[in-house]
Amino acid sequence: MSVDMYEERFREELEKLPRFVPDDSRVSLVWNHKIPAWRALFTSLCLYGHSMGYRLPSFEDFFRYCESAYTKRHPNSNYYSRFFEDPLLAGMRQRISAWYESGMAEAYLYACLVEAVEDKSKAGLVLYDPRADWKLKADMIVIINHRPLRVSAFFSERSERPNIEARRDKVERIRKINTTESSHWNNRELSAMQPFEIARADTDLQVVNGVRLFSLAAINSLFESLYKEARIDGWLFP
Questions:
Q1: What is the pTM of this model?
Q2: Fewer CB atoms < 10 Å away: N or C end of the chain?
């Protein structure tokens, strides 16, 4: 669980933050380096905000949190400190801004799924776990009518997805060469889960305070696919 609020409240809280300015540039000197997994940091900051009165983190909150984690708490902090200094600082801010927008879009999708599946339809459970994301490659797992379903959220055109996944799999197989047992490969239960995708493309999104989120039309389309697979009549956003 990263946030616990209705879709409308999520947008209201996002609007209260300093306006976010997306930056789609890619500085190769930064992006070509492996940086520790960020998903748990974003989730933990969302959980902190939940305890502080149902708040969402700003980009600057997240940037400072990442900087502290990598440059002060990480055992290789001396190595990662250079990414938060010139000339790499601007590229690192851009990379973290991409993480922030991705995390916020997924948190919004999670809030929508919970409202529709758990609260309104009373038909299932929605599970969102950073470990499942990096270990099982499942952004979210939805259980509806005794059917576990896997949701994959991505932030590009659907036609680009196969090439992106192929590159990620190649990189992971290199990194996991000595730890194949801890990977998701050959997991029978995971392989049996029907995968469902939702894309946030430039032609199909909603912008809230600068943050590009999945459109409600795309979210409803995902819901319809999930309900059809689970053989139920579920609730959709009006």
A1: 0.88
A2: C
